[in-house]
Write a structure and sequence with these properties.
With 356 residues, the protein is α+β, with helices and mostly antiparallel strands. The chain has a single domain, classed as Alpha/alpha barrel (Glycosyltransferase), CATH 1.50.10.10. The radius of gyration is 19 Å and the shape is globular. The longest helix is centred in the middle third of the chain and has 20 residues. It has 13 helices and 9 strands. The strands form 3 sheets. It has a 5-stranded antiparallel β-sheet. A two-stranded antiparallel sheet has the order 1-2. Strands 3-4 form a two-stranded antiparallel ribbon. The chain starts with 12 loop residues before the first helix and ends in a 27-residue tail after the last helix.
Length: 356
């Protein structure tokens, strides 16, 4: 379902210029985008930042980011949990939602750039990544959150991580169809995963405390299209007052007095996906107060102590801001990626990318 965004919300290109410049300056020559200078890199957040570059029209930089992933991909299609200065850092596990997310990023870039050569060139990387992730799916449909060093699945699953995988499978299927490749196994895996997320809550958080205290467990199934329309809106409304602090943003955890920019931006897109434009705009308006003097976004704000915390400006936060701004303004041809579930066999490029 497509939702109309009020015409008065224009893409704030000038206000977001420092965000784009920050992403560009944070990227290394290899294409790697760490969390911040001196920080580590993980495949999921690296991809989130790369999507921000695509929205800004920085196609060369975005493609360098995806080429870095292709160059670092392991033989089984996965990536390690983190890298520091281009070298594997956390080699204790490989997380499935991290691995799958490249499909979302590659499809997002193609929707904007319309570069079929790029899509075809990166398809083998996507294909290997998705096949690895599906090797971690159980008969009940959920995907193990990670595998260990030896490649054995770790015996539990995350709602947020599986929701992200669900979206990535949608994007992977679009990539394959666009290139004329049939992937019935991917379609069936996505169907089974959706069933698990909707109807088999016992398959998640089996061996640890429930993650329901995190906002992402609440809204990610809506953001990823697991729950749509009225069902999605009901899910958002059911816990709205646990997580949203008026005038400040969305909490990371329901019991912590801490709002974050990234969660606020992702919830903005989840709200758009269920047609709640008014609350989406109000929530996005909150984030602008959490910038430094140069206009770059901090992680978040601890409102009981009245301090910015932590004093970090993650590149993935900048990516999330750009994604939400795009979704609200319909600035690029990928603006609908997180606000619609596109089930067409061959998605049309209906919106043109507008230059600032």
């Amino acid at each position: 379902m497509s939702h109309s965004i009020p015409a008065h919300f224009a893409y704030p290109a000038e206000a977001l210029r420092p965000t784009v410049d920050y992403l560009r300056s944070s990227q290394r020559e290899t294409g790697e985008i760490p969390w911040f200078d001196g920080g580590h890199t993980d495949p999921w957040n690296h991809t989130e930042a790369a999507m921000g570059l695509s929205i800004a029209g920085e196609f060369t930089a975005a493609e360098r980011a995806y080429d870095w992933l292709a160059n670092e991909q392991l033989d089984d299609g996965s990536w390690w949990a983190s890298y520091v200065n281009g070298a594997p850092a956390n080699v204790t596990r490989r997380e499935t939602n991290y691995v799958a997310y490249i499909a979302t990023g590659i499809w997002h870039h193609y929707l904007i750039s319309e570069d079929r050569v790029f899509l075809k060139r990166l398809f083998p990387t996507v294909e290997c990544a998705i096949d690895f992730v599906l090797s971690m799916q159980s008969e009940q449909g959920e995907v193990a959150w990670a595998c260990d060093t030896s490649g054995e699945a770790m015996d539990d699953a995350l709602v947020t991580g599986n929701s992200s995988v669900y979206k990535s499978l949608e994007c992977a299927l679009h990539i394959a169809r666009t290139l004329g490749v049939l992937k019935p196994r991917w379609s069936e895996a996505r169907r089974k995963l959706g069933t698990a997320l909707r109807h088999r809550p016992e398959r998640f958080d089996r061996n640890w405390d429930s993650k329901a205290r995190y906002a992402m467990d609440w809204f990610y199934p809506v953001l990823a299209g697991v729950f749509q329309g009225e069902q999605g809106l009901e899910r958002i409304n059911a816990r709205w007052y646990e997580f949203v602090e008026p005038g400040l943003g969305c909490r990371c955890e329901n019991h912590q007095p801490w709002v974050t920019v990234a969660e606020s931006c992702e919830l903005t897109m989840a709200l758009l996906s269920v047609g709640d434009v008014e609350r989406a705009e109000a929530l996005f308006d909150c984030i602008w107060q959490w910038r430094d003097e140069a206009g770059v976004f901090w992680t978040g704000y601890q409102f009981e102590e009245d301090v910015l915390w932590p004093l970090e400006k993650p590149t993935w936060t900048s990516g999330a801001v750009l994604l939400a701004a795009d979704a609200l303004s319909q600035y690029t041809t990928a603006s609908h990626l997180f606000t619609e579930v596109d089930s067409r066999e061959q998605p049309r490029l209906e919106r043109r990318h507008l230059q600032a």
